[in-house]
Design a protein that fits this description.
Layout (H helix, E strand, L loop, with lengths): L1 H18 L4 H4 L8 H7 L2 H27 L6
Helix pairs in contact: 1-4
């Protein structure tokens, strides 16, 4: 059960990190309205790509965890 929850949470976090930087939700962040430098940095394609890359790494980690947990092969642990 713990393995399943770990895989699901990793997939959800990865999907959110991979998708949200390219949506209007990322652009309309009211916490950055008062900080123009941080807003410019957060809206740069480089930062968006880095955050999306972390999301993809998280998704790959979830797939690897699922493979290890549900295939019975525990050598990678």
């Amino acid at each position: 059960m713990a393995n399943l929850l770990s895989v699901i949470s990793s997939l959800l976090v990865g999907a959110i990190l991979a998708i949200v930087p390219w949506t209007a939700l990322w652009d309309a962040n009211y916490l950055l309205q008062t900080q123009p430098f941080l807003r410019a940095a957060a809206l740069s394609p480089f930062v968006r790509g880095c955050v999306s890359g972390l999301g993809l790494v998280n998704i790959l980690l979830a797939i690897h965890e699922a493979h290890l947990a549900f295939s019975g092969d525990r050598e990678g642990v």
